[in-house]
Each structure stands twice: as structure tokens, then as C-alpha cells.
Amino acid sequence: xxxxxxxxxxxxxxxxxxxxxxxxxxxxxxxxxxxxxxxxxxxxxxxxxxxxxxxxxxxxxxxxxxxxxxxxxxxxxxxxxxxxxxxxxxxxxxxxxxxxxxxxxxxxxxxxxxxxxxxxxxxxxxxxxxxxxxxxxxxxxxxxxxxxxxxxxxxxxxxxxxxxxxxxxxxxxxxxxxxxxxxxxxxxxxxxxxxxxxxxxxxxxxxxxxxxxxxxxxxxxxxxxxxxxxxxxxxxxxxxxxxxxxxxxxxxxxxxxxxxxxxxxxxxxxxxxxxxxxxxxxxxxxxxxxxxxxxxxxxxxxxxxxxxxxxxxxxxxxxxxxxxxxxxxxx
Length: 331
Description:
The protein is α/β, with parallel strands linked by helices. It folds into 2 domains: about 1-185 and about 285-325, Rossmann fold (3-Layer(aba) Sandwich); about 200-280. The chain has helices at about 1-5, 25-35, 75-80, 120-130, 170-185, 215-225, 235-245, 265-275, 305-315, and strands at about 10-15, 40-45, 50, 65, 70-75, 85-95, 100-105, 110, 115, 135-145, 155-165, 200-205, 205-210, 230, 235, 255, 265, 280, 290-295, 320-325. Strands 6-7-5-2-10-1-11-19-20 form a 9-stranded mixed beta sheet, sandwiched between helices. Helix 5 runs parallel beside helix 9 (about 305-315). The chain is globular, with a radius of gyration of 21 Å.
């Protein structure tokens, strides 16, 4: 099923809610499905992946297995930790704690480790270079702590991986997973902010007031029967508290951000804004195509798989598939 969902997209981010969420299992499943269709794929990461055991939990992890011809980008110091023979395609000037990022082609089947760039703009450049070297599809591996991985400018679609390692409480894991999925599924705004030059813009009846300061935007919201507020850059809990201090909005105020990765706010504050009469939308939509679940925990507190599936499914938007990685044929 997973491959059917990714087929329309040439770059897919695989994002973990936590360590041991099943992200590498999903990645290996998609690599295998692509190989079975003779696709040339490219791989990179916004962290480190592919090591035999988790460096934090000291638990065994699945390794990343590739076939001959696969393209991948990784840091210099981890290249020798893989088992494939390889051809160097490019040595970039992108530095990481484990050396510069190198683009390679696997010249044999075997295992690799990934340690990619940490900056969004670099990740986008690596993706583009892998595509230029002939990759038909690029998989980008990462964690929820690096939400920029899901930015539409980085990947054309995303898969969110959740698992029992997140928390011993299945309901908490399901609720937090659903909140992340909700943010990643925000609708595209119908308003036009393409000519906005300032960081913040308040709209009332089609008229706009631009300002570089958030406190001025909040003041404009207090004074006007505003229809919308556009916020460029990250939106934090401190900003939400300032919005809430303005009191109940004059109507259904639309809070517009560039994309869902800009929302750095807690579920509690998100819900408070909704109760106050606001709702979020985005300029560029993230295409969240699936949430995968892993009922096994690296810490021993496993979930009943049916209970976990049901808890996530009833909270996830209907347009997003929920997939148990133990039952999906690709995984």
C-alpha cells in the first residue's frame, strides 16, 4: 500500500515522532518496493541513520540495505561504515560534525549509513543533485524535531511514523501523533499574500496593513474586525499568548503561515486559538500521505496493535492513511 501512495511524488520525507518509531523499517520497505520496479532511487538524511544499534537506547536497529546503482548522500566519516563498494560522484562544501557531505553511487548491493546535512537549504540542494544524477525518486530520512524536513520546498510528500517507543501511554501517543498530522494537513489559504513584503500582515475586508513587528499586528487585530493575519517565519507559543491576550476575535480570523513546519506551538495553545475563533491555513500545503504505526517499543512497553491502530485512526484526518508497518506488504 505504501508504494501506491508515494508513486505520484519524486521526493518523500519519512519523519519519526521519536526514535524507534519504525522509520527505518518504512524506508527499507520503500527502497525494496522501488527496487522491485527497477527505479533508480536517491537517499539522504537530516540526521544519522542506518547504524546497527541506536546510539541513545543501545537497542538493535534495522540497517539500510541498498542495491547496486542506488545514489546516496552522506557524511565523509560514515562512508566506510557501510558494506557497499561505491563511486564518488561529488564532494560538497556542506560541512557536518562527521565531515563534508559526499554524493555516491553504490557499486554493489549492501548496507549504508546516512548522515546528511542539517540545514533545509542544503537538504534541498542535495535532493536536487540526486535527481540531476538520475534518481527517479528521493527518500529523505529524518525526525520530528527537524520539522523543516516536511517543508514543501524540501519534499513533495511526507510520511509520519509513530510508535510505542514514544510513550507508555497509547492514548498520549495517539493524541500527539494526531496533532502533528493535523498540523501537516492544514488547508491551503484562498487569500493572496504574494505581494506582502513585511513580516506580518493584517487583512480587513480586502484591505491590508503590513508591519514588521508582531506586537503591532496584535494591536491591529484588537482595533479591527480582521479577517486574517499573515505571519512570516516561525510561530511560537509566546506569539500565541500575545494573540490570546487580545481577547476573543471579532469573527473567524484566519491565521496564515507559509507552511505547517512554521508552527512551533503546543496542542494546548493551538486548541485555545481555535476556541477563541481563529483557524490556521498555509500558503504552501504539506502533502501528508500516511501515518505509519509501530506497536513495539524499544523500552519493552508494547501496545496492542489493534488498540493502537484504532486510537490513531479515530483522530487522524480521513484523507490520511494509517498503516501498521507489521502488516503492510512493503514493510
